[in-house]
Amino acid sequence: MLKIIAMLLMVVDHLALAFLPSYSTLYLICRMVGRLSMPLFAYKLACGFHYTHDLKLYMKNIATMTLMAQIPFVLLGYGKDFKEALFESRGLILIAHWNIGVTFLLALCFLYVITHLEYVGTLKKIIICFTLLLLSTVADYGIYGILTILLFYNFILSPNCHKLRGLFMYTLGFAMLTILYYLMFFYDAATFMIGIQLPAVLAIALVYWIPDFKIRLPKSFFYIFYPVHMLIIGLLTYFFSL
Questions:
Q1: How do residues 95-153 score in pLDDT, each as one tens digit?
Q2: What angle do CA 136, 75, 43 make, to 5 degrees?
Q3: Please, what is the angle between helix 100-116 and helix 142-155, to 10°?
Q4: Distance between CA 154 and CA 208 in Å, rounded?
Q5: What distance lies between CA 48 and its chain's CA centroid?
């Protein structure tokens, strides 16, 4: 159920990005509501890592989704300017900035390093994790996304963390992460970005109080939906903005 909610919120976010003027009140409301989707996906990814019996297959499915989504992701980002930007960059815009699938893959690697590589020394773990964080800067949400997933894994899924204490620690950690991240990487627009992103802390309420019952859908549906919905919105933006 949480995945369905996250998908709907993501569509709201992307529709606002594609069709609403950025100075409108409706745009701001839709973006703030839509930003709740990323923490929900982050929680489900942390759950996937925690419960999966085949991490390689899980990562393979996400990698396939990532490759399928890259062109729609760039198309959605550029809209009516997609063709011009594609030719001017000689196609480099297709690999310059990656969709969130790359962030998810690196986050799974990050979790695996800190939980399974007991034979690797602490210094080597730090170096590997730092490298993964550095690589994530070329993808959507990047470091912010990985650390959000880590917060869920440590404070919400950990059996050693009391429910209320985990709720408090996650909320505090996410708020601090949001403020520090946007101050560091979006200095000129930090106030605007923090104002849009900070309400996403409320996603923890959905995690705790909405029953996460399963809806019978093919597993492939969740992997296909991400690229397909961006392709549809991107094409609509491209053709109707001409």
A1: 999 999 999 999 999 999 999 887 778 899 999 999 999 999 999 999 999 999 999 99
A2: 40
A3: 40
A4: 15
A5: 14
DSSP characters over 14-75: HHHHHHS-TTSHHHHHHHHHHTTHHHHHHHHHHHHHHH-S-HHHHHHHHHHHHHHHHHHHHH
Q: Quick one: tokens of 139?
A: 């993808």
CA distance 220 to 163: 32
The residue count of the chain comes to 242
Quote the DSSP letter at residue 161.
Answer: S
Q: With pLDDT > 70 as the criterion, what percentage of the chain qualifies?
A: 99
Contacts of 82 (CB under 8 A, 6+ apart): 74, 75, 234, 238
User: What residues pair up with 98 in beta bridges, in sequence order?
Assistant: 139
- What CA–CA distances, in Å, run from 176 to 73, 83, 122, 179, 197? 28, 39, 25, 5, 12
Q: What is the pLDDT of residues 52-69, one digit of tens each?
A: 999 999 999 999 999 999
What amino acid is encoded at 14 in this protein? H
